[in-house]
Amino acid sequence: MNTFKQKSLYVALAGVSALGVTGAAQAVSVNPDGLGQALIYPYYTVRDKVAGAPYQSLLSVVNSTASAKAVKVRFLEGKNSREVLDFNLYLSAKDVWVAAIIPTATGAGIFTPDKSCTTPVVSSDPTNPTPFVNFAYTGSAADGADGSLDRTREGYVEIIEMGNITTGSTTETAVTHVAGVPSCTPLSSASAHTVAGNGGLFGGMTLINVLAGEDFTAEAVALDQFRSTGKYDLPGDIKPDLQDVSPATAVIINGPTVVSATAVIQNVDAVSALFMHNGVFNEFVLDTATKSTTDWVLTMPTKRYYYSSTVQLDDGTLVNPVEYLFQRNFVSTGACDDVSLAIYDREEQTKTTPPGFSPPPPTGRPGTMCWEANVLTFNAGDALASKNRLSVATDYQNGWAALSFPVGTSSIYEGQYHTLPMSSGTFVGLPVIGFAVQTFNNGALALTDGKTLVQSNYGGNFAHKYTRSISGPL
Known about the structure:
Layout: E1 5-8, H1 9-18, E2 29-30, E3 38-45, E4 48-50, E5 53-54, E6 56-63, E7 69-77, E8 83-91, E9 96-103, E10 108-111, E11 117-119, E12 130-131, E13 154-165, H2 170-175, E14 194-195, E15 201-209, E16 214-219, E17 221-224, E18 249-254, E19 257-262, H3 269-275, E20 276-277, E21 279-285, E22 293-299, E23 311-312, E24 318-319, E25 337-345, E26 357-358, E27 367-369, E28 373-378, E29 389-392, E30 398-404, E31 408-409, E32 416-417, E33 419-422, E34 425-428, E35 430-431, E36 433-446, E37 453-463, E38 465-467, E39 469-471
Parallel strand pairs: 28-29
Antiparallel strand pairs: 1-19, 2-17, 3-13, 3-17, 4-5, 6-9, 6-15, 7-8, 7-13, 8-11, 9-10, 10-12, 13-14, 15-16, 18-19, 20-35, 21-30, 21-38, 22-28, 22-36, 23-24, 25-27, 25-30, 26-29, 31-32, 33-34, 34-39, 36-37
């Protein structure tokens, strides 16, 4: 039976509020106020902008609640979302934890000046950071793409709450700061002292390049009501991840309506549904005078769960989806999805044939987006120095663009790609999050004394705007 629920927004708002006290209470949603049980940071990078001028990515997570928490921190490289490091972090009530992702000789690593407890212990030495590793995509786990540690230099981050730590327990005492420092021992009973969490996490990422004089910030996307139970996963365990959403029902504000949708194939579909968009919109600035550049970050945090045409359900049944999401499986050049791009200048002019991708696709083929954390750069401006980039050529110095994901017949599945079947109908598009960055490079400028030179480079960032499409019985 179709369980689609849709209602006018001002009527439904009361219903959304009521979700907190009804059987639908645990439906996962993107919290527009930025607080949640799970946080997804769309992008990190330690790439060199120019030789010897690398980015550093500064991460923060805040526990806004009065309860201590155990959370899993996970770093994923950007080509195939292979895990490069994870650990357990313990946040006392009202605690903040910060860390820096920095380049190493061969890849990337992390250090923290923070005193909050982690297991294993994360390095506090910036000259000897805890290194990211490539174990998940080399040897028997190789996926055909670059197997080097260089691949760890860009990606994205997940932080997932495992639960609150019981008030008065030895674990709570161990993680609570006394004169600014927790004892961090004992933590051996953390599993027994972890109960259902209440969310309240928020955080952000700063991408800073000191030598290039540029800085961008990105808020973490917060998933509220991610799961209804607490479950402590031991350090070294790859769980929890986005598949652990429970129950697998999503609540989405779609324009003037509120949609409740339950996964029908695999649980992670509920998370994908939150990010499903058929259009992504943002601006670009390419002024010659200021040598401006624009890059768009386009991250697909659930893409890794869709590569096999055979999906195993929770009861162990293997099914071949009739209509499912991504267009192609992962190969050495990525898992490429056809995309379309329309580009406009600031005076509403556009070309009949949209400007092309670079390198150009085969005749008659659209451009493709192949990785899991992608960077779309305009006229090869390369603000973020990404190796997961797709370049778009345009004659317009300034304007805006509309990215879309055309639906087509799949060569892998028996139906159409860029569609996600849910209990409430079929979501069209792809699950994508991200932001745009712009740079303005004036070089070194002289002050009024004619002698003092000041580096005059600037950066700014802007959230993407989106449209949704849900087909089927409304």
